[in-house]
């Protein structure tokens, strides 16, 4: 009896023992679930901190703009909404393909191919910048046609950057997260100083805020790049620039296009409120932007758990372990549901319409996840990883147990030999593009992007702005007459002459 009691009271050696200290929890919750919860939460914490710090960059700019008045804050709000539903949403969707490809390739232990995927993403996003610039330089006339205030719109084309997302995908899906937190802290400090110097000290107003916003994106990109070079985080996954990055753009876009559409539709639901508020008044637009910033900060907790889940599932699929990927999905869905209950209790009653839409969307995703053919998904993940010679020893994670996809004592029921054999056959049968074909296809893609930019620039230089100023002036006159009509009795009692009113 004493021996059994001593064994029960002996400290557990598994990593999850740090989190689950209660013997009752360990008794009723299986070890495999405890380990998965531990690894997800261990990765979620730094991810939430990074996303909140990253989102503080525009949040700080919002606070500085709010000190300049409703007009400036409304201008920044309209600029943010415009950038979000056009370039940021589409560019972010294109970068999401790297999340899938990098996590699966890293899980398959084909480390050098991770750098090739990053190069491919950089080239595609750099080409995508050209159509984005063509759209942004014509943002003012497009929004004037929608009835927005020109005093607001002149500030709406001063910011655009999403290159930082590729760096995040490159590190995050390798399980490297803390460097992002460190660089985000440094970028926030530099951002506050820049906003203070440009807006408060030099009194550049909203233009200083626009410059500070652009510089903030440069800060976080440069700081993270410098940290990667300093700590040599790229040594195992970066083999230098290669022509291999020009291959297989179709497979990348096959993932990027649906990701872009998904992200655009999700962001448009929220950002359309900014355009509707902009049609009312600057005060309504400023209030809408401030509320949306606070709500998005609360959303960072969900994004942190989503990022951790994507890394775990992608690594498991790349390693050929279907069972571990399914386990991660079940555990993460349960944790997300618990988090949603807590947030719903705190935010009860806010934005009921959006809440209903999100509940319907979540139900659809849950049904799709549980009806998904995970064996087929695993085969596709191994194929995307670009590994032609895999064996069971290469699929196992070594070293620190916290870096493994599944617990050390967890045995997968998957048959990986057949999956690997099928992948090798597909790799051998894949047709690669020749050098001449690469030059023609990528050259045509580059030419199309340049032509779009040239067309947008020509439209911006040749076409005049829409004639909506008269309507705006008429509305302003009507509002002024209404104000004077109600203000006349009080003005008369205050001794104001009628000539002064006529002058107004």
Automatic annotation (TrEMBL):
The keyword NAD does not apply. Keywords: Membrane, Transmembrane, Transmembrane helix. InterPro entries: MATE_euk, MATE_fam. Coiled coil: none annotated. Pfam families: MatE (PF01554). GO terms for cellular component: membrane. The keyword NADP does not apply. It is a multi-pass membrane protein. It comes from the Eukaryota. One of its GO terms (biological process) is xenobiotic detoxification by transmembrane export across the plasma membrane. The chain crosses the membrane at residues 48-69, 75-98, 110-136, 204-228, 290-311, 323-342, 348-370, 439-461. It is found in: Membrane. GO terms for molecular function: antiporter activity; xenobiotic transmembrane transporter activity. Its main location: membrane. Belongs to the multi antimicrobial extrusion (MATE) (TC 2.A.66.1) family. This is Multidrug and toxin extrusion protein. It comes from Astyanax mexicanus (Blind cave fish).
């Amino acid at each position: 009896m004493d021996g059994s009691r001593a064994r029960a009271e002996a400290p557990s050696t598994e990593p999850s023992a740090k989190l689950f200290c209660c013997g009752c929890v360990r008794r009723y919750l299986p070890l495999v679930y405890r380990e998965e919860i531990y690894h997800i939460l261990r990765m979620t914490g730094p991810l939430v901190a990074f996303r909140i710090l990253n989102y503080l960059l525009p949040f700080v700019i919002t606070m500085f703009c709010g000190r300049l008045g409703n007009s400036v804050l409304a201008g920044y709000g309209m600029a943010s909404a415009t950038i979000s539903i056009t370039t940021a949403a589409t560019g972010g969707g294109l970068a999401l393909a790297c999340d899938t490809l990098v996590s699966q390739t890293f899980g398959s232990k084909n480390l050098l191919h991770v750098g090739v995927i990053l190069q491919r993403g950089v080239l595609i996003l750099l080409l995508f910048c050209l159509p984005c610039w063509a759209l942004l330089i014509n943002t003012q006339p497009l929004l004037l046609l929608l009835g927005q205030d020109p005093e607001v719109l002149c500030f709406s084309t001063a910011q655009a950057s999403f290159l930082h997302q590729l760096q995040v995908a490159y590190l995050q899906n390798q399980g490297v997260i803390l460097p992002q937190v460190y660089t985000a802290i440094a970028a926030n400090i530099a951002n506050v100083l820049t906003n203070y110097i440009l807006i408060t000290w030099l009194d550049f107003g909203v233009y200083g805020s626009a410059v500070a916003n652009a510089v903030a994106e440069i800060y976080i990109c440069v700081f993270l790049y410098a940290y990667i070079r300093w700590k040599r985080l790229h040594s195992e996954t970066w083999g230098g620039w290669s022509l291999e990055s020009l291959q297989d753009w179709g497979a990348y876009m096959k993932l990027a296009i649906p990701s872009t559409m998904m992200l655009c539709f999700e962001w448009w639901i929220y950002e359309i409120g900014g355009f509707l508020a902009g049609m009312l008044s600057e005060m309504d637009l400023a209030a809408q932007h401030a509320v949306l910033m606070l709500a998005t900060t609360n959303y960072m907790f969900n994004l942190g758990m989503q990022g951790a889940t994507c890394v775990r599932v992608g690594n498991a699929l790349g390693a050929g372990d279907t069972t571990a990927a399914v386990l991660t999905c079940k555990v993460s869905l349960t944790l997300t549901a618990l988090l949603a209950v807590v947030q719903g209790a705190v935010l009860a009653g806010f934005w009921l319409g959006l809440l209903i839409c999100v509940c319907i969307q979540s139900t659809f995703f849950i049904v799709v996840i549980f009806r998904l053919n995970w064996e087929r998904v695993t085969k596709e993940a191994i194929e995307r990883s670009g590994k032609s010679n895999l064996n069971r020893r290469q699929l196992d994670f070594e070293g620190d147990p916290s870096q493994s996809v599944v617990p050390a004592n967890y045995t997968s029921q998957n048959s990986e030999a057949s999956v690997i054999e099928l992948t090798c056959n597909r790799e051998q049968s894949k047709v690669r593009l020749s050098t001449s074909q690469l030059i023609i296809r990528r050259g045509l893609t580059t030419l199309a992007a340049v032509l779009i930019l040239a067309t947008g620039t020509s439209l911006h230089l040749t076409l005049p702005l829409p004639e909506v100023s008269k309507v705006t002036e008429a509305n302003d006159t009507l509002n002024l007459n209404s104000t004077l009509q109600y203000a006349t009795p009080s003005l008369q009692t205050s001794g104001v002459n009628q000539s002064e009113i006529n002058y107004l």
